Every structure is written in C-alpha cells, then in structure tokens.
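so i finally got all the pieces together for this one. its two components total, 841 residues if u count the protein bits. some of the lines might not be protein, just check the labels. i wanna see the whole assembly predicted at once instead of chain by chain like last time, that was a mess tbh
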Amino acid sequence: MPVLCARQLSKRYSGLHVVHDVNLTVRPGQVVGYLGPNGSGKTTTARMLSGLLEPSNGIVEYDGHDIRDDLLAFRTRLGYIPEEPYLYPFLSGREYLELVGRLRELPESLLNSKIDGFLQLFNLSGAADQSIASYSKGMRQKIVISAALLHDPDVIIFDEPETGLDVSTTMMLRHLVRTLASRGKAILYSSHILEVVEKLCDHIIVLQKGKVVADDSIANLRTLLSSTSLEGVFAQLVIREDPERLARDLADLSALRS
Amino acid sequence: MRVAAQITAWLQLTRLFLKQFLENDLVSPDSDRAQLLAIVGAGVISMTLFLSMFLSAGYAMSVLTPGEAAVRTLNDKFFYVSLAMLITALVAAAQWDALSLDQRDAAILDPLPVRPAIVRWAKLTAVAMLGAAVALAVNAFPALIFPWMLSFSLRQMTAGDVFWLMGIHFMITVTAAVFGYLAVMTLRESLSAILGPKLFARVSPSFQASTIVVLGSLLLLLPPASTRVAQRQFSGRWLQSPPMAFVAAYEVATHSFIVDLPRRKVTARMARRDVANTEIFEGLRPLILPMSQRVEFLFGAVFAILILANIISAARAPVGGALLAASGSRRSRVSERIANTLIVRHPASRAGFHFAVATLFRSKTHRLTLACAAAVGLAMALVVLSRIELQPGSLSPSVLVVQPLLYGSLLVGFRHLLRVPAELRANWGVQLAWRDHPRAFRAGVYRAGILTLALPVVLAVVPLVAFVADTTTAMAHAAIGLGGAIVFLEALTLGYDKAPFTCNYVPGRGKGVLPIFVLAFLLGANLFARLELSMLLGTNTVAGVVVLVVLFGGLRVASIRRRDPQMDFNEGPETFSQLGLHN
C-alpha cells in the first residue's frame, strides 16, 4: 500500500499552470525518481507534497488520509531536503539542529547525541559552532540533510539534494538513500542528474512543463522507448532541441569577438 | 588594463556598492529601490524642514537686539552643527558593515580581472557619496530657513548678510556632518585594524550596537543641551567637544557680524538687555579663534587614523577587510543546562528561548532596533537624572523611574521585533518541525526577553539606588522592577498571536495611536515609580504587591482565555490578496 500518494495535483500562479494533474505514489522501501528539466515543476511538486505549499487542485495523502486533515501529524513523519538550503545565517550548525530537534520535541539527551553523530559523520565537527553564514553550500546542505533525518521520518523527499555536495558526500548520499529505503522508508528523489536516478530509483516519473510524460520503472521505459540508457529515454521524452547543435551554437557565440 | 576599462569598472563597482547600502535585512530584495529612496529622502528632508521651521519660528515673532541675537543664535548654531554631526554619524553606524569591503565582496570580486585598488576606490567613492548625500539632505533646509527667519527679528541685516549667512551655515554644518560620518568610519576601521579580521568580526556587532545607543542618546539629549550655550558650553568639558569647535569656526567664518550690527532705537529695557548680552558675547570672543582652530586638528587626526587603519587592513587581506562572522566558539553548556533546567523545561520553550537569544543579538535588524530602543531609554533616563541632585538619602520617584524607563523602552522594542522574521526564507525549517505548541514556544521567547533585556537593566540600576538609599532598598527595587517588567511584557504581548521571529512581517495598524501609547507609557512609569516609593518606604507595601499581583493575574487570565492562534507562517498583509498573486 502506498504511504504517500498525490492525486490530480495542480498548482497555478496567476492562471499559469506550473504543475498540472500530477499523480504519484510512493511505497515503503521504494525510491521513486522525479525527473525533469529546469523549471518543469519538480520543486513545486516537492513543496506541495511536504505541505509547504497549498495545491490549487488535487490532494496529497499520507497513509490514506489527506495530509491537510492533520498536517502536523504528517510532518512528524516527514523529512524534507530542499534544493536551496536557506537557513538562519546567524545560528551555528549545531544551534540550527538543536532548534529543529527541540521543535520536534526530541528528548534533550537523544537530540545531543544525534547532533554530535550527524556532525561527526558529515565531517562538520570542526565547523559546528561557526555561524552558518560562513558555511559553503555543501556544508549547509549537510546541515539540512541532518535536520531532515533527526526524527527518523517514514517519508523522505529529496529535492535535488546533491547540489553543492562534493564527490565523496554525493557517493555517501547515494548509499544513504539506498540504506534508508532498505529500512522501509518511502523516498521521493527529485533530480536532473540522470546517472544518480538510474542507480538509485526503482521507478521514475518524468515531468515536462508541469505535466507527467512518463511514469514507469526504468526497465519498462527503456523497453518501451527502445533505449539502452535512461539518458536516451529522457532525451526522447523531454529534450526538444538537438543538444549537440545547441552546444555548437553556444561555443560559436562565446568565440564571437566583434 | 586600459584606463577607459578601469574607469568603467570603477563606475560599475561604485553603482554596485551604492545598491548595497539599500540591500539589507530591513528591505526586501524585491522592493522598489526608487520608492524606498524617495520615502527615506522625503522623511529626512521633511524632518529637517519641520525642525528648522519650528526652531526658527521664535525669530519671526520677536524683535531682537544684536547683542541678544548674537548670544541666542549660539544655541541654534550648536543645535544645527550637532544635529548634522549626529545624523550622519548614525547613518554611518547603521551602515556599519557596508562601510568596508567584506568577505562576500572578496569572494565575488577577487576572481574578476579588476585591480584591488579599483575595488577599494569604488567602495570609497560609494561611501563618500552616501555621506555627502546625507550631509546635503540634512543641512539644505536649515541653511535656508535659519538665516531667513533670523532676519525677521534683526532688521539691521541686509539681504547680502542673509545670503552670506546662508552660505556659511551650509558650509559649516556640511563640514560638521562630514566629520561625524568620518569619525564613525574611523572608529570602525581602527577597531578592525587593531583587532584583526577574526576578533573584529566577533566584537563588531556589539560595537555597532553600542555606537548607535550612544549616538541615539546624544541625539535625543540634543534639545535640552542646546540652551544657554553661551553660559555653559564655553567652559569645562563642553569647551573640548567637537560641536563647539565647529560653532567657533562658524563664528570665525561670519566674523561674528551679528554682534557688530548697528544698533537701532529701542526701549530702555531692550537696550539694557543688549548691553548685558553684548558683554557676555565679548567675554567669549577671545576663546573663539583658538577653539575654531581645533577643527583642523580634528579633521587631520581623523583622516590620519583612517588612512593608517586602511593601510593596515589592506595589507592583511587582498580585498576584504573584516571577515563575516566566520569564527565561532561553542557556547557554555553549563549556562545552557541551567537555563533548560530552571527557566525553560518544555522542548518548544527551549527552542523559543535559545532561538530568541540568538536572534535578538545576532540578527542585524533585531540588534539595530534594540540599540535604538536602548538609546531612547537611556536618553529619557539621562534627562530625568539631569534634573535631580543625586545624594545619599535623596530617594525619590525620579530615581526610581529610571529603571522602568530603561526596561520599558527595551521591552517595547522587543515587542515590535517579535513580528520581524529572523530570516524569512529560512522559516520553512520551523514550519516543518513545528508541533503546534505556540504557547510554549512564545513562553520561551518571552523569558529570553526578560532575562536578556529587562534583568540586566534592573541589575544595572542597583548601584544607583544603593548610592541614594541603601543596598536592601536597591535589592527590593530590583525585585519589584523585575516583577514590573514581567507584568509590562505580559500587557504588551496580550494581543500577539503569532510564532515570534518566524512568520511574515505584517505591518500593524495602530500607528495613529502611537502618541497615546507613548504618553500612557510615561505616565505609567511615573505612577509605578510613585507606587514603588511608597512600597519601599513601608507605607503601602501590601497595597503595592496586591496591585502588581492582581495586574499580572488579570493579564495571565486574559492571555490564557484567548483562543490558541491559528498559526499562519505565510500570512500576507490585507492588501496583498487584492492583487490576486497567491492563487
């Protein structure tokens, strides 16, 4: 049974459809990839699924109930890692995690041991007491990931989490996603890095201009579209321009001197 | 790099740095800069227009003799010179971090093929342009109005005299304004050079807040200080103050022509007043030239220190001077444990408490507002204290009112800040972690306000009361004051139903009744001081305690009976929905 389910989810801004009739389900132990080019509506969907943004139409269900019926209860079971790690710049990494943990009402001793653990595993112990203003984007992203996992959530939404992370942390993140899924967590992994999605996800949803253009397992999509890789599938579904020609034009433009 | 390219880079960077002055926590990145500039400019100009008309109105309604006018205009000259100096100094203090290149500038500009010297020159140009703009805006109207209105009461002045006085007034007050601006820059740069980037980044916020408190208090104390200048300011410590050097320069530049104007036929009484005032002025004349020469010394010293400090800072970093708050040390776990055990026990209260402490003193907007509130409180307290003689055994309501004035101003500032988000874009984290315990969260925040704002003030006043009364009375005063602060904060927050520091800022609608609130606050503080005096003297102790307990109890009951608020983190102002932007 799906633990997270979106039905006919839409979002309009001033009459413009940013997300249109999106349906998706995520089961415990499953990693669903949410793919699409820039501006296709991935982040808007992720924000609606996490309850941070109200849909114009449609509902999001958690365990068969509309999340709006008890948003607070849903959020106690949700972990959300946004693409842009906006944090309080004047707090230190440790202080931010303490704020989140206390708001989530974790016992103080458990919270402290979890914070120490996350900071150590993410190699942030040395910077734990520096203000977040001095952190790199990757360091901020690590703090956001720690904050999302502090309370052991059942549903985790990753919205392009690899942005700004170094190679070793990205690799670790992939292993983390797999491990979390193997422990029964339902994971929605939004990204435009096809290689990562191909390695991580059992099932993918491809979004183009706010609409779902594919919703199947990677293997089925490969067969259907007679392609050997996810990149080929993605190119057929989403890319309308010849990337090689576009790259050539860009290089030509860059070389223009007078 | 060609000269033309260097000039283009310098112009582009100057524009960028000018924009940075407007780009701060108080202003949304999406706001209209032209509109903001228009509002700020109109505010400054209308304020100086009103002030100069208000202060000069007396000249239009009276006839003065040259002797009287020479002495009386010293008050106005002192006021305008000090006002120009303090306002530009306050602007510089408010723009504290934008006065110098920082780590962000270094990170963005270092990789570009622009010479560091051009970046530094562009910053200097932008800073100079800001100072010049403020100096001109503050002094333009007073320079026109003051000499013009003076001519109504001093008919001997010719049109040429009036225009000459306008020119001199403008020149001297703008010079004083530039000095005020440079003085703050020098303070900041020399601190940065002495302490080094890391240590400076740590102490810079405290210095900025202290500078604003001092300058704000001086600004509020300016009107009472600008009376009887001829009798008071030409002796003692006043004689050494920078504004008096500029007042003397003013007199030197005008050759003190007012006192030398031809006498007209006046009544015998006016003639006597003229003689007496002329004598006073002539007595001051020998002091004026040596005093005016100190202007050159002051400018020379400020420039020399500023250049030296800049050379030291430039040698340390390729572009940036002070680093952003990059250093940090873990706060004391002992004090945190004590706070968690004794003050805040619920997890949401703990979150609110520690978040409030961090926000109040580390967020630029919150720190600046608190500094302004402290300046207002300090100025009021100093005005009260300047009117009484402090002696052992002279305990009076005037001594006791100092404490409620100080904590009252800070708590009013605190109440305003509850509505200002610490960083709006970061509130998604709080939204996701929120477990709907607004009361517990707010209780933690309010306790932080009492502990970090009211308690230090209450304790700071203890030595004063101990001096005029005794230690026991001072401790009792502190205890009653703490109770009063709790009651006052309870009253201030009665109508507040949002999660502090995390929701959208929605402007209040009670600005029209602000003067009534101010009056009620002053009256309340005075009544409280009188009640407290009777309690401390033992005449009304029980009644006083009962009043406080009943007030607190009533407010608590009213607060508890209020429905739990529907938390809306993204509430927009009422007019927002009319645009239909959030469908």
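Residues 167-182 of chain A form the longest helix (16 residues).
Chain A touches chain B through 41 residues (CB under 8 Å).
anyway lmk what u think
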